[in-house]
Amino acid sequence: MSFNLEGKVAVVTGGSSGIGLETVRLLLAEGVKVAWCGRDPERLAASQALMLNQFPAERCMAYQCDVLDNAAVVAFATAVEARFGGTDLLINNAGQGRVAHFAQTEDEQWLAETRLKTFSVIYPIKAFMDQLTRSACPSITNVNSLLALQPEPHMIATSAARAALLNLTHSLAHEFAAKGIRVNSILLGMVESAQWRRRFAERSDQQQSWEEWTAEIALRRGIPMGRLGKPEEPARALVFLASPLAGYTTGAALDVSGGFNKHL
Ligand code: NDP
Predict the structure, then answer these.
(1) Ligand 1 touching residue 18 (CB < 6 A)
(2) Which atom of ligand 1 approaches the CA of 19 most closely?
(3) Do you know which Gene3D superfamilies this protein is assigned to (predicted)?
(4) What pLDDT, in 10s, does the model give residues 212-238?
């Protein structure tokens, strides 16, 4: 079975690291032309060098852009259209979480978290909408977290903002169905990536290895599969939902959490 994506154009925000980078890699392996963005020029250049080692330069486009800078996102969309002629798949992945309880969350941080989780999706959707409308198989796929359904007090602002994104994704799926644009999301549990590497560097027991530290987290948090996810696992879920293989699926939120979801 094929994803039927050869020759299509995909945009992946936050494609310079972790889940985004694995999504870029998988799409390129499927014959897709991929444009991806990130803010840090060095990380972006490193991701570009990695992809150019494996895939033809004419299908790779790394672009420096902060998804919270609307003018920059519009310029990104213009550049993608100039380079690839349009966009078929938009994958909104850029972002990060905030670890803090209510007492440690200042008003500005509430606003920043809400802005990140909503406008990191709203700006790219607005900027790429004309191109998606012209596509024969348009889709928008948002990276979200299980926190949207299962909030954690130590990530209170992120949990609330994730719930807003889930709600927004559902509304957009219904509104855009008439245009033929499918809108879905994935709900992540805990996935190995740069965010977890940073937390690992700050671990209390500096003698613990990465494997020991992540296995202990999985055990302590009650992840039934007993491990964190690998970045390529959500990447596969994203590519499936974004592809014509999921042609009759819109408004879905696919769980990629190793069974961490406690809901029916
Ligand atoms: P990484 O930190 O490895 O990757 C995040 C990517 O997003 C990087 O390329 C980063 O590059 C980019 N990015 C962040 N902010 C912006 C921005 N404002 N504009 C453009 N690019 C941006 O994290 P993950 O791969 O783990 O996370 C991917 C997504 O999954 C994120 O949205 C994260 O919140 C979400 N998630 C991850 C979980 C996990 O356990 N890993 C759990 C739940 C959700 P740069 O910093 O250079 O801009």
Answers:
(1) yes
(2) 25
(3) NAD(P)-binding Rossmann-like Domain
(4) 999 999 999 999 999 999 999 999 999
